[in-house]
Amino acid sequence: MAKNWLKGAQSAYDTVVIGSGLGGLTAANMMAKFGHKVLLLEHHYNLGGLATWFKRKGGHVLDISLHGFPYGMIKTLRRYWNQDIADHVIRIKNIRFDNPQFTIDTNFDRADFTRILLDRFGILKGTIDEFFHTLRGMNFYDKMPLNTREIFERFFPGRTDVHRFLMEPITYANGSTYEDPAIAYGIVFSNFMDKGVYTFQGGTDQLIKKMKAELLKNGVDIRNHCMVEKILMDSGEDGKKKVAGVVVNGQEIHASAVLSNANILSTIHKLAGDENFSPEFIEEVDKVRLNNSSCQVYIGIKKGEKIDYLGDLMFTSEASELDFDKVLSKDVTSRSYSFYYPHIRPDHDRYAIVSSTNARWADWANLSDADYESGKKHLIETTLDALEKYVPNIRKIANHLEASTPRTFKRYTLHPTGTSFGTKFEGLKISRELPQQIDGLFHTGSVGIIMSGWLGAANYGVIVANEADKFLRSLKPKPQLVAGV
Ligand SMILES: Cc1cc2nc3c(=O)[nH]c(=O)nc-3n(C[C@H](O)[C@H](O)[C@H](O)COP(=O)(O)OP(=O)(O)OC[C@H]3O[C@@H](n4cnc5c(N)ncnc54)[C@H](O)[C@@H]3O)c2cc1C
Question: What is the pTM of this model?
Answer without folding.
Answer: 0.96
